Amino acid sequence: MEYTWTKTTTAPLKVKRFLIDCGLSHRLISAMKKGAGQFLVNGKLATTATELKQGDQVTVRLDAEPADPAVAVSTAPLNILFEDQNWLVVDKPAGLTTIPGPTNSTDTLVNRVKGHLLAEQADDLRPHIILRLDRFTSGVVLIAKNRLAQSLIAPAVEGHQLDKRYIAIASGRVTPQHGNFTGPIGRVGTTPQREVRADGKPAHTEYWCRETTDKWTLADVKLYTGRTHQIRVHFAVAGHPLLGDELYGGPMDLIQRQALHASFLKFSDPFTHEKLTFEAPLPADMQHVLQLK
């Protein structure tokens, strides 16, 4: 694939600095220098040291990414919310692992996306997961279909500029109706479990209670950081573990997985600068809980 930018400023710049300012990572530029692509200025081959002047057109031409032979192909279905040449947005069901691992290497989200890309005869066959969800969390997942897209979205991800919203069903009556959890989160020993601890990483979760009963509270949740198990940990520490969240002490009588759904995503497409918004409807198991009043 290739993409072109125009230098609009008068200040002298070399190709490398210009591309970094456009959002390309040092890692991608280094890979291109080692043979993964080419740099062009006004249609002619250039190097990262080429001097640019105002009005120059700078193009990156990337070789296609071959499939990872270690990743199996799955032809199981995907619930696709959106797709173009750079992005794939899917509604992941609860129970589907995002990336292959020791316990499941044949039918994860990555395996299914690989099968989808092969079926549509895509040039780039190595998907890049931008937003990863826990196995038993459902909802919106953003995937970059090529390494340029992955590189360009990275600053927004690192700067917490993607607007990510969740729907959670917490145990008991959560008060106040609106609040923020800011306890830093760290790992519990070598286990998968996390906890709020003084030496943890900064974490910020905001919530708004939508509906409350004696058994549960339905809440809209916004993440400002992306720590592992962040929403689950913050509600558990507040005394309201999510329904079905066995790891953090949630009650298991109403639902058999953590009642957490990634319902909404908004971000600025770094290629077009359009604001893209996606929503995934609440899955049936969480809807069923809400009917048990």
UniProtKB/TrEMBL annotation:
User: Reaction catalysed?
Assistant: a uridine in RNA = a pseudouridine in RNA
**GO function terms (MF aspect):** catalytic activity, acting on RNA; pseudouridine synthase activity; RNA binding
Q: Which residues form a coiled coil?
A: none
Protein name stated in the entry? Pseudouridine synthase
Q: What does this protein do?
A: Responsible for synthesis of pseudouridine from uracil.
Q: Which UniProt keywords apply?
A: Isomerase, RNA-binding
Per UniProt, residues of the Pseudouridine synthase RsuA/RluA-like domain are: 86-236
Alphabetical list of CDD domains matching this protein = PseudoU_synth_RluA_like (cd02869)
Q: Where is the active site?
A: 134
Query: PANTHER family given for it?
Result: MITOCHONDRIAL RNA PSEUDOURIDINE SYNTHASE, PSEUDOURIDINE SYNTHASE
Q: Keyword Signal, does the record have it? A: no
Q: Name one GO biological process term.
A: enzyme-directed rRNA pseudouridine synthesis
- What EC number is given for this enzyme? 5.4.99.-
Query: InterPro entries attached here?
Result: PsdUridine_synth_cat_dom_sf (IPR020103), PsdUridine_synth_RluC/D (IPR006225), PsdUridine_synth_RsuA/RluA (IPR006145), RluA_PseudoU_synthase (IPR050188)
Give the matching Pfam families.
PseudoU_synth_2 (PF00849)
Record-stated family: Belongs to the pseudouridine synthase RluA family.
Superkingdom? Bacteria
